[in-house]
Specification:
With about 450 residues, the protein is an all-alpha fold. About 80% of the residues lie in helices and about 0% in strands. It has two domains: about 210 residues, no CATH class; about 200 residues, no CATH class. The chain has 13 helices and no strands. Helix 4 runs antiparallel to helix 5 and helix 10 packs antiparallel against helix 11. The protein is globular, with a radius of gyration of 23 Å.
Length: about 450
């Protein structure tokens, strides 16, 4: 008597709910690290402000430029974290160490290059009509902040690798160490101590540079003590590979940051009320947007680890969990801003025109936040799959060929003013929030013999 051969049991479908806790466990410390970076800027602003309007304007001009370099370097060096996540998922400890060493070399080169380019930009500022009184005091501070890009790049690469190997709180600790060091250094170097009068604006730049460098040094010391830097050598071709992967990411993040900056320029054409209103809205929205940024980084790592472990069946579950968490958070943010936007604006400004416009902006920007969170998370998931080029093309097209032109058309041609600018820009984000998830779902489409 013959019996039919039994079929191999079908593996259970990955559960979305099972991915929620690991994502949050990873995302929350990353959010805390991003908050630390923001706090350094806040501390600098608060401690420079008493020096007067001209020093504060010099700091604001420097910040507006260095943010573009931060975005470019973050994108370019993100490939290191993706590589480390793949190696970690494959339980390849030597591969993780190799990615770290290659990343540190790449970060040093990128940081030096970025510092040199930013320093050179100083000499172009008089050509674009910047105030002479600001330029007269700007040089030393500008050069100090340019040099800051070197330890920033190295420390960020260390953080990327630590996040990839499930040590996010260690990375956050190094970030907060920079904040803790920055406060007393700012005070002493700006205002002096004892009979020494301090260095004023230059002191603020040196304090930021020194605190970031010391935090970077402690991180490198910790890596050396833990044995993660003992193995020597970098596999041939790894650094060029990471550089090639990082270029489209750097372009994408730079393009997104520059597009966002251009929205502020367009709003400035409507006058001081529009600028002040936008500053209020963005100051609040920027803080609330840290969770989507942290989730985007977390989903990149989780997807990368799953691919390294050859568990592609989990990819959609990871994405669904991340998109669900971000959508829920941003929906709550939307409701809160719609209900409380007027109260927040009234608390931050005593100008009725500013309050009225900011209240209306809060409603519009709140709605856009949901799409922005979705597109950032989908972009992060694609990054974890090492799908770098097409998402960059999609993002750049959505922002530069659709969002910005539409912002100009609605704001100026149709006479809708600042709200039209934000509305047009938001429509571009909605397009990106549609196309990027479609791209992810197509790449993770179930193939014969696989589970999706």
């Amino acid at each position: 008597m013959h019996t039919a051969p039994s079929e191999a049991p079908t593996p259970p479908r990955p559960r979305t709910a099972a991915e929620i806790t690991p994502l949050l466990r990873l995302a929350l410390p990353i959010v805390a690290g991003l908050a630390a970076s923001t706090l350094i800027g806040v501390v600098d602003t608060l401690m420079i402000a008493p020096l007067g309007t001209v020093p504060l304007a010099a700091a604001a001009l420097t910040t507006s430029v260095i943010i573009i370099f931060y975005s470019a370097l973050y994108g370019f060096l993100s490939a290191v974290g993706v590589e480390a996540a793949h190696r970690y998922g494959a339980e390849d400890a030597d591969g993780v160490s190799a990615a770290l060493r290659a990343g540190l070399i790449l970060a040093l080169c990128a940081g030096v290059g970025g510092a040199a380019v930013m320093a050179a930009i100083l000499f172009a500022l008089p050509l674009i009509g910047q105030p002479t009184e600001v330029l007269a005091i700007l040089g030393p501070y500008w050069f100090a902040m340019s040099a800051l890009l070197i330890p920033f790049s190295v420390l960020m690469t260390i953080s990327q690798v630590l996040n990839a190997i499930d040590r996010p709180w260690t990375a956050t600790g190094f970030a907060f160490l920079g904040v803790v060091l920055n406060v007393p250094m700012n005070y002493v170097l700006i205002w002096g101590i004892g009979g020494w009068e301090g260095l004023g604006l230059l002191g603020a730049g040196l304090a930021s540079l020194l605190s970031e460098s010391l935090a970077c040094g402690v991180a490198l010391w910790w890596l050396a003590r833990s044995g993660r830097l003992r193995r020597r050598g970098v596999p041939a071709g790894l650094i060029p590979q990471l550089a090639r992967d990082g270029v489209p990411l750097g372009i994408g993040y730079t393009g997104e940051g520059a597009a966002f900056a251009l929205v502020g320029v367009l709003l400035g054409l409507f006058g001081a009320v529009a600028l002040a209103s936008n500053q209020i809205v963005q100051a609040v929205g920027g803080v609330l947007y840290m969770l989507p940024l942290g989730m985007a980084a977390a989903v990149t790592i989780r997807v990368g680890q799953a691919i390294g472990a050859e568990e592609r069946a989990r990819l959609r579950a990871i994405a669904r969990a991340a998109l669900g968490l971000v959508t829920g958070w941003m929906a709550a943010v939307t409701v809160a801003l719609i209900l409380l936007g007027g109260t927040i604006a009234d608390a931050l400004s005593d100008d009725p025109e500013v309050v009225a416009l900011a209240t209306a902006m809060f409603v519009l920007v709140a709605i856009i936040q949901i799409a922005d969170g979705v597109q950032a998370t989908a972009y992060g998931a694609l990054r974890g799959m090492t799908d770098f080029r097409w998402p960059t093309v999609i993002t750049l097209c959505c922002y530069w060929l659709f969002a910005l032109p539409l912002a100009g058309i609605l704001g100026f041609l149709f006479g809708l003013g600042p709200l039209g600018v934000w509305g047009g820009y938001g429509l571009g984000i909605f397009v990106a929030a549609t196309l990027l998830p479609i791209r992810f779902w197509r790449l993770t489409k179930k193939r014969p013999g696989t589970i999706a």
